[in-house]
């Protein structure tokens, strides 16, 4: 029996696998070692999952997560999980989850557009090149956090259409001071900003919104995708923004001569297939 977890900054998706079948599928809050301590991660896992998960002895626990790009950050997650599950743990980045889930053993370019954004070239086994995402302050083009940041700034400066601003404030019931407090003083500002991308998706028929979304996606192609050998390999996308704005994403891709052959909201189905067909090395946490 294996346990697979794929975590972004907003939510964690868990799949319990027996043989080649998923027996349980659960969502909990996002986990990110950049923003959470080992103790906080352990508490999140313990409170989020059913108690019987902690009474099982897993053959392997595979955890893929945002912020798991360095040995130090992987160690924080690994120590937290091994204390909970008492099982062998493998911790990898959410980018490798995207690559394995989207491409399996095929070479290509894997892209994440969710709360944050990222991309890589994957040779069928390993990530061999990565244009750094840099987070929502310096990068993360195409992401929900950046889309929300741009829209919120336009609202606060009165640059978005008046009717849209009014609808926005009616829906979210927040003041300018509340918004600034959430961005600059409260935990997980990227999660907060990303929630506004769902509001924008409801108003995609607005010329202002369509232009905002398409320009944000265009920036992702210019600053990330075109730095790879994108004309000779498949390009596939995963994430809530990619999935919810798939029609706009296809249109923007055409501007670069790109045909996207797969867009999924979550890499989990692909990861389940990957881990039921591949033997992965065990990390020692």
TrEMBL record:
It comes from the Bacteria. This is BadF-type ATPase. Coiled coil: none annotated. It comes from Bacteroides luti. The lineage of its organism: Bacteria, Pseudomonadati, Bacteroidota, Bacteroidia, Bacteroidales. Gene3D superfamilies: 1.10.720.160, 3.30.420.40.
């Amino acid at each position: 029996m294996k346990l697979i977890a794929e975590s972004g900054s907003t939510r964690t998706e868990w799949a319990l696998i027996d043989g080649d079948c998923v027996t349980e599928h659960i969502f909990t809050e996002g986990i990110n070692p950049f923003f959470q301590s080992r103790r906080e991660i352990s508490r999140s896992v313990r409170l989020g999952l059913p108690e019987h998960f902690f009474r099982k002895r897993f053959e392997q626990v595979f955890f893929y997560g945002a912020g798991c790009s360095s040995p130090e950050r992987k160690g924080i997650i690994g120590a937290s999980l091994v204390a909970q599950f008492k099982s062998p743990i493998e911790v990898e980045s959410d980018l490798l989850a995207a690559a394995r889930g989207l491409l399996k053993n095929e070479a290509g370019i894997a892209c994440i557009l969710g709360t944050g954004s990222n991309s890589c070239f994957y040779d069928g086994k390993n990530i061999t090149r990565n244009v750094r995402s840099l987070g929502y302050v310096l990068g993360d083009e195409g992401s929900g956090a950046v889309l929300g940041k741009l829209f919120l700034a336009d609202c606060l400066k009165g640059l978005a259409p008046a009717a849209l601003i009014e609808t926005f404030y009616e829906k979210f019931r927040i003041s300018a001071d509340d918004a600034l407090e959430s961005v600059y003083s409260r935990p997980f500002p990227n999660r907060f900003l990303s929630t506004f991308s769902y509001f924008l998706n409801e108003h995609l028929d607005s010329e202002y919104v369509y232009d905002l979304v398409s320009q944000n996606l265009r920036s992702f192609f210019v600053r990330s995708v075109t730095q790879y050998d994108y004309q000779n390999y498949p390009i596939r996308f995963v994430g809530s923004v990619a999935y919810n704005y798939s029609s706009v994403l296809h249109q923007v891709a055409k501007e670069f001569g790109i045909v996207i052959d797969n867009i999924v909201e979550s890499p989990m189905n692909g990861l389940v297939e990957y881990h039921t067909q591949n033997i992965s090395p065990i990390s020692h946490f």
